[in-house]
Amino acid sequence: MIQAKHLYKTFGEGESMTRALKDVNLSIREGEVVAIMGPSGCGKSTLLHVLAGIEQPDSGEVWVDNVPLHEMKDGELSDFRLANMGFVFQQYHLIPVLSVLDNIALPLIARGMSEREANRKAKLALEQVGLADKAKHFPVQLSGGQNQRVAIARALVGQPRIIWADEPTGALDSQTAEAAIGLLLKANEWYGTTVVIVTHDPTVASRAGRLIRMDNGRVLPERGERHA
Q1: Strands of 59-64's sheet in order across
Q2: 228 residues of the chain, pLDDT tens digit each
């Protein structure tokens, strides 16, 4: 479903240049739960952003469901992400002036869904993450773990084919982190959603079905392990 071919990505120029990706090749099958691990600064978040079409590679190809993301313009990429992808980030990226319900409904409304139907689906998503009673609250009124569950509900609400999670548990305690990862795994179980998680946490990585290791901008050869 996701294929990367000879990806290169650099930031900066001259002495300050950082080679974030160096000839990265990988494939992710539909319905997989994949964890990407590696030391800080190894390029794992950059890889996720390039695979998701948030950033363009300097060279190389990214294919998602036979669609060449590397050839698409910004507007096309935005529409494709909106229709096919959900995102969960460490810092939640919720809009502070919108209620919890409105934050979750927003991507559906952006896709052209009526406000009434978007709110109905948003309420169902809130129920799935155990926050049905927080619909009218604002992000500032919630704990960090609750905000992350709202962010996961927003990612799930459109039943996307892919969820990208960049350090989704980095700001959470271990118990709350376990609950957050459990919600992502349920999306995979319920809908067959492909889930790609960038993490530094071995406990989180152990929940994935497949582990991709990175170091110094490169994907390391896989060891063939598969987790339960």
Answers
A1: 18-28, 2-11, 59-64, 67-68
A2: 899 999 999 998 888 888 999 999 999 999 999 999 999 989 999 999 999 999 999 999 999 999 999 999 999 999 999 999 999 988 888 999 999 999 999 999 999 999 999 999 999 999 989 999 999 999 999 999 999 999 999 999 999 999 999 999 888 888 888 888 999 999 999 889 999 999 999 999 999 999 999 999 999 988 754 443
